Design the sequence.
């Protein structure tokens, strides 16, 4: 075999590898789309969500170890704020939760931080802090008991619950 | 000349060695446990009956508890009784050493007991079979219903004599007993002897309870409860059953532990999205703020001399372990390894900090020196955390959870123990699922 032949073989191999890679990436994309409910590792689906009123979801989701609000979470909380402005006599408790993949005590603190992130956002939209109490359950009350990334993403949440 | 000196020295060492009594080295993993014969304690025929106690079987039962304690250390190999060559009473007076050596025993425990006037009198002896001599002997009197503790106290004395370290058998473990489906767990405070017997429940399970910890005298427990849906730190008197809230601040108090002198509780207080560390003096009720940082500061644990506090903080972005002076000054991060770290607990000997480490989706229990150097990971699993030290600083108890299936099935939480050598990992017997263990100090001290 001469040098020229070797080169073409090499480039052929390269092409084949590229095709394989592309297929892998595409299939990875399509599976991600299929579950479709996790962005980064924040849950974006509707499976566990309940509603305070029509069109007002009761919960927002968080990334692992994070308490920052995503764009989707802020949109949900603005809907909650509008709802609370309309229902002036209604008070709420925001429950903060963590997934099972962290130490218990840190998760209690993390749940508290998440619940307060939601509370603070509602307050910037004019809801009095007196109307919103918070409680952290850490990892103690998972909504989905499964041990899977999807379940964990559904459990990393803050839930706004009507008190009266 | 040199050679002669060397030979002399050699003989000298050899002589000392041959006269030294047996010793068990507990600083390394012991792959060659010491063969020990535990003769049933001889029950004096003059013994009275006592309530529903099976007095005739008491000697046998006590020796079985001692054997189980020894076996669980991984340091001893209790020999089968059917090979025993002498009757308990005769062996207790003066064993025929060569006969016991025949069954390959190196140490022998003998004893006798008598119940008279509602008192249990016990004596025991530990014999070195190789050196053919008594190593230790002790007699004591107690109430007959304490017979299990008698077995543990004997175990402690023998362990102490053979290893040179304090034992940990006459101790209890307080933990959270769990039952019910994963998303609606019922949790109760429970207490048991170190060997899993005498389980008692201290709360009814009406409210969520977490993280119980003993005070230094083992009479009080501090824990977290969601009583009336207000997550707060509580204090419980085990004998009287009295409970009182100690961290009644407008927010959440959690992660409590006692100071080494028992006068204070150190805990986290969370408000407006920020957790910091506080202490409360139990007598004066004076509250002191120890950390002031916008990050999460939690899981505080005092050094045994009370001068330092190890705690968990995410001020660097993720959970790491920090050490500071007990007034909150001189905060230093001590963990820099791969992964994130939580639940620091200072060893009762003061030399090590036990921790939980999370890395690439796996959970580790480990120990390190108090400046963070010398990290050793002892055990890896799907989920485990919350180490608590045996009073002699040689063993850790922690809890481990299993992966749950689609409907939460297959989920269990159990207590496990491991020596800090990394050897001798064991599942502890508990009546129910269990988590958040806390090991008491020695009860008789």
Sequence:
């Amino acid at each position: 075999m001469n040098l020229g032949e070797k080169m073409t073989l090499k480039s052929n191999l390269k092409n084949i590898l590229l095709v394989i890679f592309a297929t892998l990436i595409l299939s990875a994309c399509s599976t991600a789309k299929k579950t479709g409910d996790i962005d980064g590792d924040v849950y974006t689906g509707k499976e566990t969500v309940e509603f305070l009123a029509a069109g007002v979801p009761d919960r927002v989701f968080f990334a692992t170890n994070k308490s920052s609000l995503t764009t989707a979470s802020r949109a949900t909380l603005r809907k909650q704020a509008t709802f609370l402005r309309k229902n002036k006599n209604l008070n709420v408790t925001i429950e903060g939760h963590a997934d099972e993949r962290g130490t218990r005590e840190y998760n209690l603190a993390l749940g508290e931080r998440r619940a307060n992130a939601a509370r603070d956002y509602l307050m910037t939209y004019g809801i009095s802090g007196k109307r919103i109490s918070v409680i952290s359950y850490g990892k103690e009350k998972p909504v989905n008991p499964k041990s899977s990334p999807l379940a964990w993403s559904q459990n990393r949440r803050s839930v706004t619950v009507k008190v009266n | 000349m040199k050679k002669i000196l060397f030979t002399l020295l050699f003989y000298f060492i050899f002589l000392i060695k041959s006269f030294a009594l047996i010793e068990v080295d507990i600083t390394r993993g012991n792959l060659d446990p010491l063969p020990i014969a535990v003769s049933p304690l001889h029950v004096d025929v003059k013994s009275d009956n006592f309530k529903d106690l099976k007095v005739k079987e008491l000697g046998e039962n006590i020796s079985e508890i001692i054997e189980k304690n020894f076996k669980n250390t991984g340091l001893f190999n209790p020999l089968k009784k059917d090979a025993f060559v002498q009757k308990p009473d005769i062996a207790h007076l003066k064993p025929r050493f060569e006969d016991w050596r025949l069954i390959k025993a190196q140490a022998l425990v003998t004893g006798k007991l008598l119940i008279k006037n509602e008192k249990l009198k016990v004596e025991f002896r530990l014999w070195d079979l190789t050196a053919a001599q008594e190593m230790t002997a002790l007699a004591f009197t107690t109430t007959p219903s304490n017979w299990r503790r008698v077995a543990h106290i004997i175990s402690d004395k023998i362990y102490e004599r053979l290893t040179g370290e304090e034992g940990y058998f006459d101790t209890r473990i307080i933990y959270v007993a769990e039952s019910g489906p994963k998303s609606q767990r019922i949790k109760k405070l429970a207490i048991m002897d170190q060997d899993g017997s005498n389980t008692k429940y201290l709360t009814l399970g009406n409210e969520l309870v977490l993280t119980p910890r003993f005070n230094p005298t083992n009479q009080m427990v501090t824990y977290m409860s969601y009583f009336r849906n207000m997550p707060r730190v509580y204090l419980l008197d085990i004998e009287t059953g009295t409970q009182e809230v100690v961290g009644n601040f407008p927010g959440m108090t959690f992660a409590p532990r006692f100071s080494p002198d028992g006068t204070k509780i150190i805990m986290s207080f969370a408000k407006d999205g920020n957790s910091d560390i506080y202490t409360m003096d139990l007598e004066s009720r004076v509250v002191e703020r120890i950390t002031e940082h916008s990050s999460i500061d939690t899981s505080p644990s005092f050094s045994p001399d009370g001068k330092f506090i190890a705690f968990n903080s995410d001020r660097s972005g993720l959970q790491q372990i920090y050490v500071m002076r007990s007034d909150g000054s001189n905060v230093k991060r001590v963990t820099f390894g791969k992964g994130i770290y939580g639940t620091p607990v200072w060893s009762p000997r003061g030399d090590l900090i036990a921790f939980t480490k999370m890395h690439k989706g796996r959970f580790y229990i480990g120990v390190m020196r108090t400046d963070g150097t010398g990290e050793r990971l002892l055990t890896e699993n799907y989920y485990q955390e919350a180490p608590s030290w045996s009073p002699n600083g040689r063993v850790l108890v922690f809890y481990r959870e299993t992966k749950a299936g689609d409907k939460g099935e297959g989920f269990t939480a159990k207590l496990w123990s491991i020596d800090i050598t990394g050897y001798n990992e064991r599942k502890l017997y508990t009546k129910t699922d269990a988590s958040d263990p806390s090991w008491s100090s020695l009860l008789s001290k």
Notes: Chain A has two domains: 1-35, 38-162. Confidence is low (pLDDT under 50) at residues 1-9, 23-34 of chain A. The two ends of chain A are 84 Å apart (CA to CA).
